[in-house]
Specification:
- With 112 residues, the chain is α+β, with helices and mostly antiparallel strands.
- The chain has a single domain (2-111), classed as Phosphatidylethanolamine-binding Protein (Alpha-Beta Complex), CATH 3.90.280.10.
- The chain has helices spanning 31-34, 70-73, 86-92; strands spanning 2-3, 17-18, 53-61, 96-105.
- Strands 1-2 form a two-stranded antiparallel sheet. It has a two-stranded antiparallel ribbon with strand order 3-4.
- It is globular.
- This is Phosphatidylethanolamine-binding protein.
- InterPro entries: PEBP (IPR008914), PEBP-like_sf (IPR036610), PEBP_euk (IPR035810).
- It holds the Pfam family PBP.
- One of its GO terms (molecular function) is peptidase inhibitor activity.
- One of its GO terms (biological process) is regulation of Ras protein signal transduction.
């Protein structure tokens, strides 16, 4: 899950913000129980005046034998998640796009 609109859709200088990466999924597996999370889930958190953000859920077919690690995607610290080179990552690891979904999310004072 990535945010192409960080910190704002008008100025996405931190795109793509990396929110969640789970490699090695198999059809029918529960993502939560899978156990090979290389980027722990970070909930969307658009700032108050940033406008709605798009969040992309990308599903890739992985080459046989690929074993991605936390080091392959980058650190878990908040600032290490920004500016994730998504296209380079996909090309470097030979990933093939298999599915896409998305949502939008905006700041909500009740959710803070």
């Amino acid at each position: 899950m990535i945010d192409p609109d960080a910190p704002t859709p008008a100025d996405p200088k931190f795109a793509f913000w990396r929110h969640f990466v789970v490699p090695g999924l198999r059809p029918g597996e529960d993502v939560v129980k899978h156990g090979n999370v290389v980027t722990e889930y970070l909930a969307p958190g658009p700032k108050e005046d940033s406008g709605p953000h798009r969040y992309l859920f990308l599903l890739f077919e992985e080459p046989a034998g690929l074993k991605l690690t936390k080091e392959d995607v980058g650190g878990e610290e908040f600032v290490q998640r920004r500016s994730f080179p998504a296209a380079d990552f996909v090309a470097r690891h030979g990933l093939k796009l298999a599915g896409v979904n998305w949502m939008t999310c905006a700041w909500d004072g009740y959710a803070q």
